[in-house]
Amino acid sequence: MNFMLIVIAAILLVASATIIFILVKKTGGARAIFRAQQEAKEILGAAKEDAKKMQREASIAAKEKQLNLKAEFERQTRDRSRKLNELERRLVKKEENLERKFQIHEKKERDFAQKERRVFAREQELAEKEKGYQELKRKAVEEIERVANMSQEDAKRELMKKMEDEAKLEAVQILRKIEEETREKAQGTAREIISQAIQRSAAEHVVETTVSVVDLPSDDMKGRIIGREGRNIRALELATGVDIIVDDTPEAVILSSFDPIRREMARLAIEKLVVDGRIHPARIEEVVETVKKELEEKVKQEGESVILELRIQDIHPELVKLLGRLKYRTSYGQNALQHSKEVAYLAVIMAKELGLDANVAMRAGLLHDIGKAVDKEVEGTHTELSVELTKKYGEKEKVIQAIASHHRDVDFPSIEAVLVQAADTLSAARPGARRELLEAYVKRLEKLEEIANSYEGVAKSFALQAGREIRIIVESQKISDDKATLAAKEIAQKIKEELDYPGQIKVTVIREMRAVEYAR
Questions:
Q1: Secondary structure element (H or E) that encloses residue 152, with its range
Q2: Which residues contact 474 (CB under 8 A, 6 or more apart)?
Q3: pLDDT (tens digit, 9 = 90+) per residue, 367-424?
Q4: Are strands 252-256 and 330-331 parallel, antiparallel or unpaired?
Q5: Cβ partners under 8 Å of residue 440, min gap 6
Q6: pLDDT range class, residue 221, cuts 50, 70, 90
Q7: Within 10 A of 348 (CB to CB), how many other CB atoms are there?
Q8: Fold (topology level) of 438-511
């Protein structure tokens, strides 16, 4: 600061000297010199005042800066102190929680030890009671044998003989009932035999299956279908509603969806995109929209083709579209549209042979599974949906009743209904028409184990040999050896009544007595 004052004073002196020189030169007189000296003094005084003022301002600014730095330091100190206090409070709280958990754990350990002692005492008490029970049982058996004048083995033989006699009597009653029912239904049985004979003369058809695999020209195309960060495959799945699985299968992708129409739409869209070569989200949406319109038109044409082939008149256009949708629906591997056509052909041939209404048989046979076209979208069985749709679109009451009874959900209202049911069974049962789904196989095994587990005293059950055998482990305290034999018979009877299965099922009941004790 002093250096600056000296510099300013020097500048002022030089300036004043210059002015004096100029004035002296101009006036050349002493008066001018005097005035110049006075002005120089005034300028020098003003310069000194300005220097002092600047010094005071600089001192004030320095003090303000020092105060600001001090305030900032105090603020940071307070913040750090607050954070330290908060951290200390959290640590104290965690310490309290850990202490509380430790106390709870100690209490649980004490409770567990007490329970273990009580269980051990209970086991000893039960063991004593078991000994007393066995002694009472032995005495009771001896008393019964004495009173009945018959040993335990003799009593068993007598019981078995009685059960055998009851079983024979029951068999005779069942046979008599079957004979009576057979006489009552003789006419219907005769017609069914005639229908089966007619069916045997029908030619078999090859059934199409709806594919779920799209072939690709090369494995490089998989990467293009997936796209950068999966954007192409996400766009495809969003537009079609189908899960697209890209795995190790060479030159192919797999489409997964419960809706066969969507699956077919996805297949056609991917094939078009592969041929076109332009695969990006905008192009995918455009192609899917185009394929959707083409598929709707194709579905309509399929339905119209069937109507023309069977020469059926006055059928509602919506039913025609639904028939076309059956082209992409399968049941146990059998194409639903082909199956419906077969049922219609068989039903009308049998109706003509028996002198019945061929038009009712034809329409009911063709439309009996129409509900399968919407059963993935609407709640209800396909029979209920078929009845609702045919009612909605104006089919005759006889046709609707025949459709309602084709799975014997209701009694047959007419002979035409019997023919439709027979034709449906024959179309599905001919060799190679259908295959059993994995879901149905698993459900049968689950039902088999469920029936076994419903029996009182069963601990576990295991379905073996693809459902041809079931092994049942029973609780030895609840079921004796004698009861195990009876349990096997009753479970086998229950399986026979509640489950449909090919061949026979072996029922094995296992009773095992284990004595467990601990050495402490």
A1: helix 152-184
A2: 457, 458, 459, 484, 487, 509, 510, 511
A3: 888 888 887 777 778 888 888 888 888 888 888 888 888 877 777 888 888 888 888 8
A4: unpaired
A5: 332
A6: confident
A7: 25
A8: GMP Synthetase; Chain A, domain 3 (3.30.300)
Residue 507 makes CB contacts below 8 A (sequence gap 6+) with: 452, 469, 470, 472, 488, 491, 492, 495
Q: What is the pLDDT of residue 201?
A: 35
Looking at per-residue pLDDT, the higher value among 22 and 268 belongs to 268
**Which candidate, 387, 350, 349, 347, places its Cα nearest to that of 365?**
347
Edge-to-edge strand list for the sheet holding 458-464: 458-464, 469-474, 506-511
CA pair distance 422, 195, nearest whole angstrom = 7
Q: Are 404 and 387 in contact (CB under 8 A)?
A: yes
Q: Check: CB of residue 341 under 8 Å from CB of residue 203.
A: no
Q: Which residues in 71-179 belong to E strands, given as ranges?
A: none
Q: Which two three-digit tokens encode residue 169?
A: 């009597």
SS3 173: helix
Q: Residues 6 or more apart from 265 whose CB is under 8 A from it?
A: 240, 242, 288, 291, 292, 295
Extract the tokens encoding 45: 């005084």
Q: What is the pTM of this model?
A: 0.45
Q: How many residues does the chain have?
A: 520
Query: Comparing C-alpha atoms, which of 439, 221, 206, 489 is closest to residue 332?
Result: 439
Specify the pLDDT at position 502.
57
- State how far the Cα of 460 lies from the Cα of 303, in Å rounded to an integer: 52
Output the six-digit token pair for 228.
Answer: 């950068």
